[in-house]
Write the C-alpha coordinates for this entry.
Amino acid sequence: MDEQQVERLVKEHGLEAEAARSYLSAADEYNAEEERILGGVFGQVSGPVVELGAGRGEFTRELLGNYLKPGQRLYAVERLDTAAAKLRESITDERLEVINSDSVRLPLPDGAAGLVVSRAALHDFVSDDGDVAAALRDCVRVLAPDGVFLVYDKVSDGFADVERESAEGRMERMNVELAALEGRKCWGLHRSGDYRALLEDLGLGEIMLTLLDTPDFPAYVGMTKKTIEEKRKAYVKRWGNGVNGILDGLYRDFDTLPPRALPMVIAWGRKYD
Ligand SMILES: C[S@@+](CC[C@H](N)C(=O)[O-])C[C@H]1O[C@@H](n2cnc3c(N)ncnc32)[C@H](O)[C@@H]1O
Protein backbone atom coordinates (compact mmCIF):
# COMPACT_ATOMS: atom_id res chain seq x y z
CA MET A 1 0.00 0.00 0.00
CA ASP A 2 1.33 3.41 -1.01
CA GLU A 3 1.21 5.39 2.27
CA GLN A 4 1.68 8.68 0.38
CA GLN A 5 -1.60 8.07 -1.41
CA VAL A 6 -3.26 7.26 1.92
CA GLU A 7 -1.97 10.55 3.32
CA ARG A 8 -3.23 12.45 0.27
CA LEU A 9 -6.76 11.07 0.68
CA VAL A 10 -6.70 11.88 4.40
CA LYS A 11 -5.48 15.44 3.77
CA GLU A 12 -7.45 16.33 0.65
CA HIS A 13 -10.73 14.57 1.40
CA GLY A 14 -10.78 14.21 5.19
CA LEU A 15 -10.97 10.39 5.08
CA GLU A 16 -10.00 8.23 8.06
CA ALA A 17 -6.70 6.46 7.28
CA GLU A 18 -8.38 3.02 7.46
CA ALA A 19 -11.13 4.08 5.03
CA ALA A 20 -8.48 5.47 2.67
CA ARG A 21 -6.53 2.18 2.79
CA SER A 22 -9.57 0.07 2.12
CA TYR A 23 -10.63 2.30 -0.81
CA LEU A 24 -7.14 2.19 -2.34
CA SER A 25 -6.87 -1.56 -2.02
CA ALA A 26 -10.29 -2.03 -3.73
CA ALA A 27 -9.21 0.46 -6.43
CA ASP A 28 -6.02 -1.57 -7.06
CA GLU A 29 -8.10 -4.71 -7.60
CA TYR A 30 -10.40 -2.82 -9.95
CA ASN A 31 -7.48 -1.43 -11.97
CA ALA A 32 -5.85 -4.85 -12.28
CA GLU A 33 -9.10 -6.36 -13.63
CA GLU A 34 -9.57 -3.45 -16.05
CA GLU A 35 -6.02 -3.89 -17.34
CA ARG A 36 -6.51 -7.63 -17.78
CA ILE A 37 -9.65 -7.15 -19.90
CA LEU A 38 -8.52 -4.17 -21.98
CA GLY A 39 -5.04 -5.67 -22.44
CA GLY A 40 -6.70 -8.85 -23.81
CA VAL A 41 -8.75 -6.87 -26.34
CA PHE A 42 -5.86 -4.63 -27.41
CA GLY A 43 -3.74 -7.76 -27.93
CA GLN A 44 -6.25 -8.94 -30.59
CA VAL A 45 -6.36 -5.74 -32.66
CA SER A 46 -4.03 -4.00 -35.03
CA GLY A 47 -4.16 -0.69 -36.85
CA PRO A 48 -5.30 2.74 -35.70
CA VAL A 49 -7.57 3.23 -32.69
CA VAL A 50 -10.48 5.71 -32.51
CA GLU A 51 -11.49 6.99 -29.06
CA LEU A 52 -15.01 8.49 -28.84
CA GLY A 53 -15.91 11.29 -26.41
CA ALA A 54 -12.38 11.90 -25.14
CA GLY A 55 -13.38 14.84 -22.89
CA ARG A 56 -10.45 15.95 -20.73
CA GLY A 57 -8.37 13.04 -21.96
CA GLU A 58 -8.04 10.89 -18.85
CA PHE A 59 -8.66 7.70 -20.81
CA THR A 60 -6.66 9.06 -23.77
CA ARG A 61 -3.60 9.23 -21.49
CA GLU A 62 -4.24 5.68 -20.25
CA LEU A 63 -4.59 4.40 -23.81
CA LEU A 64 -1.30 6.02 -24.83
CA GLY A 65 0.51 4.96 -21.66
CA ASN A 66 -0.76 1.41 -21.21
CA TYR A 67 -2.30 -0.05 -24.35
CA LEU A 68 -1.08 1.51 -27.61
CA LYS A 69 1.97 0.10 -29.30
CA PRO A 70 4.84 2.29 -30.55
CA GLY A 71 3.76 3.96 -33.80
CA GLN A 72 0.07 2.98 -33.38
CA ARG A 73 -2.20 5.92 -34.27
CA LEU A 74 -4.87 7.19 -31.87
CA TYR A 75 -7.69 9.44 -33.15
CA ALA A 76 -9.37 11.06 -30.11
CA VAL A 77 -12.83 12.34 -31.09
CA GLU A 78 -14.48 15.11 -29.07
CA ARG A 79 -17.46 17.19 -30.18
CA LEU A 80 -16.90 20.24 -27.94
CA ASP A 81 -14.51 22.79 -29.48
CA THR A 82 -13.10 23.94 -26.13
CA ALA A 83 -12.47 20.41 -24.83
CA ALA A 84 -10.87 19.35 -28.11
CA ALA A 85 -8.59 22.41 -28.11
CA LYS A 86 -7.50 21.77 -24.50
CA LEU A 87 -6.84 18.13 -25.29
CA ARG A 88 -4.62 19.10 -28.22
CA GLU A 89 -2.63 21.44 -25.99
CA SER A 90 -2.32 19.16 -22.99
CA ILE A 91 -1.09 15.89 -24.53
CA THR A 92 2.05 15.77 -26.62
CA ASP A 93 2.38 12.38 -28.28
CA GLU A 94 3.13 11.91 -31.95
CA ARG A 95 0.68 8.96 -32.11
CA LEU A 96 -2.25 11.20 -31.12
CA GLU A 97 -4.52 13.19 -33.45
CA VAL A 98 -7.43 15.05 -31.83
CA ILE A 99 -10.52 15.23 -34.05
CA ASN A 100 -13.03 17.93 -33.16
CA SER A 101 -16.17 16.26 -34.47
CA ASP A 102 -19.50 14.80 -33.52
CA SER A 103 -19.53 11.00 -33.70
CA VAL A 104 -22.49 11.21 -36.10
CA ARG A 105 -20.08 11.99 -38.94
CA LEU A 106 -16.38 11.24 -38.63
CA PRO A 107 -13.82 12.74 -41.02
CA LEU A 108 -12.14 9.35 -41.51
CA PRO A 109 -12.28 6.94 -44.47
CA ASP A 110 -14.17 3.61 -44.41
CA GLY A 111 -12.28 0.88 -42.59
CA ALA A 112 -9.62 3.26 -41.19
CA ALA A 113 -9.52 1.78 -37.65
CA GLY A 114 -8.83 -1.59 -36.06
CA LEU A 115 -10.57 -0.59 -32.82
CA VAL A 116 -13.19 1.97 -31.81
CA VAL A 117 -13.31 2.50 -28.06
CA SER A 118 -14.96 4.82 -25.52
CA ARG A 119 -14.90 5.06 -21.75
CA ALA A 120 -17.48 6.78 -19.54
CA ALA A 121 -18.77 8.60 -22.60
CA LEU A 122 -21.86 6.97 -24.10
CA HIS A 123 -24.12 7.61 -21.09
CA ASP A 124 -23.11 11.26 -21.59
CA PHE A 125 -23.65 11.31 -25.37
CA VAL A 126 -25.89 14.07 -26.59
CA SER A 127 -27.71 14.21 -29.88
CA ASP A 128 -30.83 15.86 -31.26
CA ASP A 129 -33.05 12.80 -30.83
CA GLY A 130 -31.24 10.87 -28.06
CA ASP A 131 -30.77 7.89 -30.42
CA VAL A 132 -27.30 6.67 -29.43
CA ALA A 133 -27.23 3.92 -32.10
CA ALA A 134 -27.75 6.56 -34.80
CA ALA A 135 -24.95 8.64 -33.24
CA LEU A 136 -22.61 5.61 -33.49
CA ARG A 137 -23.35 4.16 -36.95
CA ASP A 138 -20.66 6.19 -38.66
CA CYS A 139 -18.13 4.85 -36.14
CA VAL A 140 -18.89 1.31 -37.37
CA ARG A 141 -18.27 2.52 -40.94
CA VAL A 142 -14.71 3.58 -40.03
CA LEU A 143 -14.00 0.16 -38.50
CA ALA A 144 -12.08 -2.31 -40.70
CA PRO A 145 -13.52 -5.82 -41.26
CA ASP A 146 -12.72 -7.92 -38.14
CA GLY A 147 -12.20 -4.67 -36.20
CA VAL A 148 -13.49 -4.39 -32.62
CA PHE A 149 -15.98 -1.89 -31.17
CA LEU A 150 -15.58 -1.60 -27.39
CA VAL A 151 -17.74 0.44 -25.03
CA TYR A 152 -16.84 0.89 -21.39
CA ASP A 153 -19.37 2.82 -19.37
CA LYS A 154 -21.22 3.43 -16.11
CA VAL A 155 -24.40 1.38 -15.68
CA SER A 156 -27.24 1.11 -13.16
CA ASP A 157 -27.12 -2.70 -12.67
CA GLY A 158 -27.73 -3.67 -9.03
CA PHE A 159 -29.93 -0.63 -8.29
CA ALA A 160 -33.73 -0.61 -8.20
CA ASP A 161 -33.86 3.20 -8.32
CA VAL A 162 -30.35 4.43 -9.02
CA GLU A 163 -31.14 8.13 -8.43
CA ARG A 164 -32.38 7.44 -4.92
CA GLU A 165 -29.75 4.86 -3.97
CA SER A 166 -26.53 6.42 -5.22
CA ALA A 167 -25.16 9.97 -5.23
CA GLU A 168 -23.34 9.15 -8.47
CA GLY A 169 -26.57 7.81 -9.97
CA ARG A 170 -28.34 11.07 -9.06
CA MET A 171 -25.42 13.09 -10.42
CA GLU A 172 -25.88 11.54 -13.84
CA ARG A 173 -29.36 13.10 -14.07
CA MET A 174 -27.64 16.48 -14.19
CA ASN A 175 -26.17 15.66 -17.64
CA VAL A 176 -29.67 14.88 -18.89
CA GLU A 177 -31.00 18.17 -17.44
CA LEU A 178 -28.13 20.21 -18.92
CA ALA A 179 -28.63 18.72 -22.39
CA ALA A 180 -32.34 19.58 -22.12
CA LEU A 181 -31.39 23.24 -21.51
CA GLU A 182 -29.84 23.19 -25.03
CA GLY A 183 -32.88 21.42 -26.48
CA ARG A 184 -30.84 18.21 -26.92
CA LYS A 185 -31.10 14.71 -25.46
CA CYS A 186 -28.49 12.90 -23.40
CA TRP A 187 -28.63 9.07 -23.50
CA GLY A 188 -28.20 8.82 -19.71
CA LEU A 189 -27.71 5.76 -17.51
CA HIS A 190 -28.63 2.29 -18.76
CA ARG A 191 -28.20 -1.34 -17.80
CA SER A 192 -25.49 -3.62 -19.14
CA GLY A 193 -28.08 -5.54 -21.22
CA ASP A 194 -28.83 -2.31 -23.10
CA TYR A 195 -25.17 -2.18 -24.14
CA ARG A 196 -25.39 -5.71 -25.55
CA ALA A 197 -28.55 -4.68 -27.45
CA LEU A 198 -26.76 -1.56 -28.71
CA LEU A 199 -23.83 -3.55 -30.13
CA GLU A 200 -26.25 -5.99 -31.76
CA ASP A 201 -28.19 -3.09 -33.24
CA LEU A 202 -24.92 -1.78 -34.70
CA GLY A 203 -24.51 -5.11 -36.52
CA LEU A 204 -21.57 -6.41 -34.45
CA GLY A 205 -20.99 -10.09 -33.68
CA GLU A 206 -19.10 -12.24 -31.12
CA ILE A 207 -20.33 -9.90 -28.39
CA MET A 208 -18.64 -10.20 -24.99
CA LEU A 209 -19.71 -8.38 -21.87
CA THR A 210 -18.33 -8.08 -18.38
CA LEU A 211 -19.40 -6.06 -15.35
CA LEU A 212 -16.84 -4.45 -13.02
CA ASP A 213 -17.74 -3.65 -9.43
CA THR A 214 -16.45 -0.11 -8.78
CA PRO A 215 -15.29 0.72 -5.23
CA ASP A 216 -17.34 3.38 -3.41
CA PHE A 217 -15.37 6.56 -2.75
CA PRO A 218 -16.49 7.73 0.72
CA ALA A 219 -15.81 11.44 -0.05
CA TYR A 220 -17.66 11.36 -3.42
CA VAL A 221 -20.25 14.01 -2.54
CA GLY A 222 -17.81 16.59 -1.11
CA MET A 223 -15.39 16.11 -3.99
CA THR A 224 -18.13 16.42 -6.62
CA LYS A 225 -19.60 19.58 -5.05
CA LYS A 226 -16.13 21.15 -4.99
CA THR A 227 -15.56 20.32 -8.68
CA ILE A 228 -18.98 21.70 -9.65
CA GLU A 229 -18.46 24.92 -7.66
CA GLU A 230 -15.18 25.49 -9.54
CA LYS A 231 -17.16 25.26 -12.79
CA ARG A 232 -20.39 27.03 -11.76
CA LYS A 233 -19.50 30.31 -13.50
CA ALA A 234 -18.61 28.50 -16.71
CA TYR A 235 -21.87 26.50 -16.50
CA VAL A 236 -23.91 29.70 -16.14
CA LYS A 237 -22.04 31.26 -19.05
CA ARG A 238 -22.81 28.27 -21.26
CA TRP A 239 -26.34 27.31 -20.18
CA GLY A 240 -27.69 30.48 -18.53
CA ASN A 241 -29.16 31.00 -15.04
CA GLY A 242 -31.36 27.87 -15.31
CA VAL A 243 -28.23 25.96 -14.24
CA ASN A 244 -28.46 27.32 -10.68
CA GLY A 245 -31.81 25.60 -10.05
CA ILE A 246 -30.42 22.32 -11.41
CA LEU A 247 -27.39 22.50 -9.11
CA ASP A 248 -29.47 23.44 -6.04
CA GLY A 249 -31.73 20.42 -6.66
CA LEU A 250 -28.68 18.17 -7.00
CA TYR A 251 -27.14 19.43 -3.73
CA ARG A 252 -30.44 18.95 -1.83
CA ASP A 253 -30.58 15.33 -2.99
CA PHE A 254 -26.87 14.82 -2.26
CA ASP A 255 -27.59 15.52 1.44
CA THR A 256 -29.57 12.29 1.69
CA LEU A 257 -27.74 9.96 -0.69
CA PRO A 258 -24.99 7.39 0.04
CA PRO A 259 -21.72 7.61 -1.94
CA ARG A 260 -22.38 4.31 -3.71
CA ALA A 261 -20.43 4.07 -6.95
CA LEU A 262 -21.95 2.81 -10.19
CA PRO A 263 -20.63 -0.41 -11.68
CA MET A 264 -18.97 -0.29 -15.10
CA VAL A 265 -19.72 -2.47 -18.09
CA ILE A 266 -17.11 -3.39 -20.68
CA ALA A 267 -18.85 -4.69 -23.80
CA TRP A 268 -17.26 -5.41 -27.15
CA GLY A 269 -18.09 -6.96 -30.49
CA ARG A 270 -16.49 -7.62 -33.87
CA LYS A 271 -17.38 -6.20 -37.27
CA TYR A 272 -18.00 -8.68 -40.06
CA ASP A 273 -18.08 -7.83 -43.73
C1 LIG B 1 -17.92 12.06 -19.52
S1 LIG B 1 -17.02 12.75 -20.82
C2 LIG B 1 -15.73 11.66 -21.24
C3 LIG B 1 -14.86 11.08 -20.21
C4 LIG B 1 -13.58 10.49 -20.79
N1 LIG B 1 -13.84 9.57 -21.87
C5 LIG B 1 -12.82 9.77 -19.68
O1 LIG B 1 -12.83 8.53 -19.65
O2 LIG B 1 -12.24 10.46 -18.84
C6 LIG B 1 -18.03 12.49 -22.27
C7 LIG B 1 -17.53 13.28 -23.47
O3 LIG B 1 -18.26 12.87 -24.64
C8 LIG B 1 -18.44 14.02 -25.47
N2 LIG B 1 -19.57 13.76 -26.38
C9 LIG B 1 -20.89 13.76 -26.06
N3 LIG B 1 -21.61 13.48 -27.16
C10 LIG B 1 -20.74 13.29 -28.18
C11 LIG B 1 -20.88 12.98 -29.57
N4 LIG B 1 -22.08 12.77 -30.10
N5 LIG B 1 -19.75 12.87 -30.34
C12 LIG B 1 -18.52 13.06 -29.79
N6 LIG B 1 -18.32 13.38 -28.48
C13 LIG B 1 -19.42 13.48 -27.69
C14 LIG B 1 -18.74 15.13 -24.45
O4 LIG B 1 -18.52 16.40 -25.02
C15 LIG B 1 -17.80 14.79 -23.31
O5 LIG B 1 -16.58 15.47 -23.43
